[in-house]
Design a protein that fits this description.
The protein is α+β, with helices and mostly antiparallel strands and 541 residues long. It has helices spanning 19-26, 69-90, 110-116, 135-151, 203-232, 236-250, 290-294, 350-381, 391-408, 422-429, 431-448, 472-487, 515-531; strands at residues 2-6, 30-39, 44-53, 61-67, 95-100, 105-108, 155-161, 171-180, 186-195, 254-261, 267-274, 283-285, 298-300, 320-327, 330-339, 412-419, 454-459, 462-468, 501-508, 537-539. It is built from 13 helices and 20 strands. Helix 2 packs antiparallel against helix 8 (350-381). It is globular. It starts with a strand and ends with a strand. The model has no long low-confidence stretch (mean pLDDT 85).
Length: 541
């Protein structure tokens, strides 16, 4: 039972604030109120509650509650991903900021906050340079940024004079690039500024700094693009290919590969590769990679003589970096980078290692969401006891098969089958024995149906089998084969009587043009088989 109700911010929810109380007091609809329910086990279940009064009705009000716990979990995961991006930004000494099309700050790092005289970066959100800078500087920044937003032309390596808060001279090398959506419209800009006060006259040093700034802007844009594309992926394989294309651009001088975890979770398999020749290790166990063993980033190679090389690498490269892809304690894959053959060891400093981790985390979150989406879809179309498709999926599939059959002039066979004396099994041997019978029948149908057939649990002990391209004679013959084969199955534990099936057969277009008509015909034939003595096949009239 519920021990307490809480607001989304964790504060206890008074009785007077609950939707059920408010709707009775105000007689006005209360819609989409998010609240947490603290259970006796201390677990919090998040819900969205709507309450609508029913005037003149004894019911009083209609209250609808939706479980949004999973949505809250996903929102928290997305927030964590945003925090990781913010952490990367805050670890970079240069100022980084995002602005919308009106030149309002939407995100800044700690370095930019210090420039603006703020202790909390969030205090800048929604404000412009006019709230922090001298009027003439703010106007200059606004003018150049608006021109960038209108033309889409970036400002690269622009020298800006921006004195400190106490009036001391200070110069920045600023780079601003547009943020462009998929329709080609400029939505805002990304800016990175580097303090060049002490190196303003050092041309060589300035040139090196500019190259680093441009590279960082490029990396940020690529990461932004990666996140957008990962959100649009519909399969894990697609997500790995998208990530490979971005990592190849982030680390153009290194060879690399992405591996996905096998279904067993004990091995990884090559999902994508770039750079040099394809890796010799197309798949390998978790023990063959130190990063997978230790569940954290691992560097090896000639440049790391104290670190043993991973066994999945064909030879010791100048430098190799392996980054595990994991979410919620589950290993989902591996990102592997190595120096190209014959090339010196690249310099993987902390910022580049953080970049590999950010790519890994983005991919891990996308894969976890795809796995969850697939799990939820399977739960929505599968019967949990037999693991066959459920009635809803069967009816949708039948309509689809009938449309295709009508288009190509082909028949479709339908078999409805029922376990004989199933109630007696339940009554005499208990529901566990009954469940064992249903699981055995489900397993038998799954293992013995034709490729392309669709087996479903229709309800209770009744099952349905859709047989595309099977005419009435073929369907009846197949039904008889199932009857005899299942009767010869070994008895499940707890059953003391021989099991048998009654089956009803119908076919499109002989017995109907719609799925509902065919199911009625096959069900009526099954009913006749039951009343004719069971353990037989009856064809619909």
């Amino acid at each position: 039972g519920a021990r307490q109700f809480i607001h989304p911010n964790g504060v206890a929810l008074d009785v007077a604030e609950r939707p059920s109380t408010r709707v009775f007091e105000t007689q006005q609809p209360v819609l989409d109120v998010e609240m947490g329910v603290v259970l006796e086990s201390s677990e919090v279940v998040w819900t969205s509650v709507s309450a609508v009064p029913v005037p003149g009705s004894s019911l009083g009000a209609v209250i609808v509650t939706s479980d949004i716990t999973e949505r809250k979990r996903v929102e928290a995961a997305l927030a964590q991903e945003r925090d990781l991006l913010q952490a990367l930004m805050d670890n970079i000494p240069d100022t980084i900021y995002f602005k919308d099309s009106a030149s309002r700050f939407t995100r800044i790092n700690q370095a930019q906050a210090r420039v603006l005289g703020l202790s909390d970066p969030a205090a800048a959100y929604g404000k412009t340079d006019a709230d922090f800078q001298a009027a003439h500087l703010a106007a200059e920044f606004f003018s150049e940024e608006q021109q960038l937003i209108q033309t889409g032309v970036p400002l690269i390596d622009r020298q800006e004079y921006n004195p400190t808060l106490d009036g001391q001279p200070r110069w920045f090398s600023a780079t601003k690039v547009p943020l462009i959506d998929r329709q080609g419209r400029v939505q805002g800009l990304i800016g990175i500024s580097h303090d060049i006060t002490h190196r303003i006259q050092a041309a060589d040093g300035l040139r090196t700094t500019n190259e680093a700034l441009t590279e960082r802007v490029r990396q940020m844009a690529l990461l932004h693009d990666l996140e957008e594309h990962l959100q649009a992926c519909v399969t894990g394989a697609e997500a790995f290919q998208v990530a490979a294309g971005v990592v190849d651009q982030l680390f153009p001088d290194e060879d690399g590969a992405l591996y996905s975890a096998s279904s067993s979770g004990q091995r990884v398999e090559l999902a994508a590769a770039w750079g040099g020749p394809a890796p010799q290790a197309q798949e390998f166990g978790l023990d063959d990679c130190w990063a997978l063993r230790r569940a954290r980033t691992y560097q090896s190679g000639v440049a790391q003589p104290m670190h043993s090389a991973c066994r999945h690498l064909p030879s010791a490269p100048a430098l190799a970096v392996c980054v595990p892809i994991q979410a919620h304690g589950e290993m989902l894959g591996l990102l592997s980078l190595s120096a190209a053959a014959g090339q010196p060891a690249p310099q993987f400093d902390d910022s580049l290692l953080q970049l590999t981790q950010l790519v890994s985390d983005s991919l891990a979150l996308a894969l976890a969401n795809l796995n969850l989406r697939d799990k939820l879809r399977q739960q929505s179309i599968r019967d949990p006891l037999t693991n066959l498709f459920n009635r809803r999926y069967m009816e949708e599939s039948l309509e689809r098969e009938l449309l295709q059959a009508a288009r190509h002039g082909q028949p479709v066979g339908i078999i409805m089958l029922d376990v004989d004396h199933f109630k007696q099994v339940n009554d005499e041997h208990g529901h566990e024995a009954g469940d064992a019978v249903l699981r055995q029948l489900g397993r038998y149908l799954f293992e013995n149906m034709r490729g392309g057939d669709i087996a479903c649990r229709y309800g209770g002990e009744e099952f349905a089998l859709i047989m595309p391209a099977a005419d009435l004679a073929q369907t009846r013959q197949r039904a008889e084969q199932h009857r005899l084969a299942f009767q010869a199955q070994p008895l499940p534990k707890g059953a003391v009587a021989q099991l048998s099936l009654s089956l009803g057969v119908a076919a499109f277009p002989t017995h109907g043009q719609t799925g509902a008509a065919l199911l009625r015909a096959a069900d009526a034939a099954l009913y006749q088989a039951k009343h004719a003595g069971r353990n037989r096949v009856v064809v619909a009239e």
